[in-house]
């Protein structure tokens, strides 16, 4: 598997783009503003979008992407998410008021887009690639993902706060190589992190005491303007893990 980071920021502006990971050339993990960096040709090759949750910074490009490339494709774009998240998309995005219902355009039997329900712990097999939803703990129904090439795995937490069930599963992944974990707020905003169900460095430190496997770790979803401070606080409290800041255009191959 080859994963390219299109966006990994907690906001926008300048070179900041919200969450989108391109897997090979046909899968997206989330579809934030980072998707805007893809060419038209690249957009037509996207067959699957695996959605962590329904917040705008993770889904904002989906409606425009479907509308832009649907007529250039010979099969529907598949949105993979839990039933709870798909229900939010149906009710609040693809509802004819915010955006047309492309699961019924041009016809209900041959749509430009279709929904596929996923469940935590049940892998989706796409060729040799296995993508499995993992539990997340966020302000809306949410998941993370394990991406398994067969040789190694990358785990992406999605947006989450403290989450014991997640670590129980992660500690059982024998071929785990990479962990991408969010830390959205600095320690001075711990109360906001708790309220919005995100992490700050001190909370991340507490969570990592539950990790039992060696792993190469990357930090994502930092708030613009606070990003340097957050990374300094992370380095100060969990430097033994040598976490790296996730960057646009970073590539993982495994």
TrEMBL record:
**SMART domains in the cross-refs:** Lactamase_B (SM00849)
Q: Which GO terms describe its biological process?
A: cAMP catabolic process; negative regulation of glucose mediated signaling pathway
InterPro entries, from UniProt? Answer: Metallo-B-lactamas, Pdiesterase2, RibonucZ/Hydroxyglut_hydro
Q: Which segments constitute the Metallo-beta-lactamase domain?
A: 17-198
* GO molecular function terms noted in the UniProt entry: 3',5'-cyclic-AMP phosphodiesterase activity; 3',5'-cyclic-GMP phosphodiesterase activity
This chain belongs to the protein called: cAMP phosphodiesterases class-II:metallo-beta-lactamase superfamily
> What is the scientific name of the source organism?
Sulfuriferula multivorans
Top-level taxonomy: Bacteria, Pseudomonadati, Pseudomonadota, Betaproteobacteria, Nitrosomonadales
């Amino acid at each position: 598997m080859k994963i390219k980071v299109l966006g990994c920021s907690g906001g926008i502006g300048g070179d900041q783009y919200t969450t989108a990971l391109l897997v090979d050339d046909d899968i997206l993990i989330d579809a934030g503003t980072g998707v805007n960096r893809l060419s038209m040709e690249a957009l037509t090759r996207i067959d699957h979008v695996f959605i962590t949750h329904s917040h705008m910074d993770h889904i904002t490009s989906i409606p425009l992407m479907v509308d832009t490339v649907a007529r250039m494709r010979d099969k529907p774009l598949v949105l993979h998410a839990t039933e709870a998240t798909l229900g939010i998309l149906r009710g609040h995005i693809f509802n004819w008021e915010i955006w047309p219902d492309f699961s019924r355009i041009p016809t209900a039997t041959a749509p430009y887009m279709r929904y596929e329900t996923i469940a935590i712990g049940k892998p989706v097999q796409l060729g040799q690639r296995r993508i499995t939803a993992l539990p997340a703990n966020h302000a809306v129904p949410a998941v993370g993902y394990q991406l398994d090439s067969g040789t190694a795995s990358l785990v992406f937490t999605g947006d989450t706060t403290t989450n014991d069930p997640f670590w129980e599963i992660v500690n059982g992944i024998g071929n785990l190589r990479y962990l991408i974990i969010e830390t959205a707020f600095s320690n001075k905003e711990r109360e906001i992190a708790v309220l919005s169900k995100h992490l700050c460095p001190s909370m991340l430190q507490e969570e990592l005491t539950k990790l039992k496997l060696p792993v190469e770790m990357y930090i994502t979803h930092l708030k613009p303007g606070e990003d340097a401070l957050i990374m300094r606080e992370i380095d100060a409290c969990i430097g033994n893990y040598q976490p790296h800041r996730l960057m646009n255009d970073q590539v993982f191959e495994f």
